[in-house]
Write a structure and sequence with these properties.
alpha+beta; two-stranded parallel sheet; 2 strands; 95 residues; globular
Length: 95
């Protein structure tokens, strides 16, 4: 679950329990949001897509359904474009 601009993983807190009954649910804070560091650097959709790929690799997750809201939807679309072998399904909410 990828949150939008100015949001964080808490945006999904009411949805996670229902999804977790059937799926493994991961809702990270994007770099510069929530509990993450806020370094100077590249905050482009492409950079976030690479960050997401690296995050999934670190967790040992080869394929995912990506759900993105607002900016998270843009990241999800870019991720699906750049790393299509990782993306099983794409769900966009107000993106």
């Amino acid at each position: 679950l990828i949150h939008g601009m100015g949001g964080n993983s808490n945006n999904w807190r009411e949805l996670i329990p229902a999804l977790a009954k059937k799926y493994r649910v991961i809702a990270p804070d994007l770099l510069g949001h929530g509990q993450t560091a806020k370094p100077r650097g590249d905050y482009s959709l492409g950079a976030f897509a690479v960050w997401l790929r690296d995050f999934l690799d670190a967790l040992g997750i080869p394929r995912v359904t990506i759900v993105g809201h607002s900016l998270g939807g843009g990241i999800a679309m870019q991720f699906a474009h750049q790393h299509r072998d990782y993306c099983e399904r794409l769900i966009l909410i107000s993106s």
